[in-house]
Amino acid sequence: MSTLIVYMTKHGCTERTAGMLKEHLYGEVTLVNLKKEKKPDLSRHETIVIGGSIRAGRIQEGVRKFCERNRETLLGKRLGLYLCCMYDGETADKQFEEAYPEELRRHAAAAGLFGGEFDFQKMNFIERKIVKKVARVEESVSRIDSEAIRNFAVKISQGSGWSSNPGVLDS
To answer: pTM higher than 0.70, yes or no?
Structure first.
């Protein structure tokens, strides 16, 4: 199984979660930061996972454009979608729905909310001020959900020819 994880990150959370997800997947797994490589080759991968994060209430423009530009190809692949955000519950669900097109959400074999983080050391002065005011957070905080990442990995692997045990094919 060949998996491509494409993502976009501002302060590193989505990149970190992509790396964590890679550790739970079997077979060839390639990571691509859409900020550096805008048009990765999707043709040689059976599974495509797309990850983004919420900034000012929206997913990154690059992720949105990637989904639009590759819609038909993505609909022909095993697809996973995940989002990094600091909310949970209904707010996170709504952000996920607004982040990815309905057609891709319906087609996805796995969907996940991986939590998020505020890393004040990677933010500029204005970003820190906004986070402090809006989120009422005074220092760096990480709420990455490792269990959600593991569960996503199991789900995206089901039916793909690989089990959740290394080297064992599903029947």
So the answer is: yes
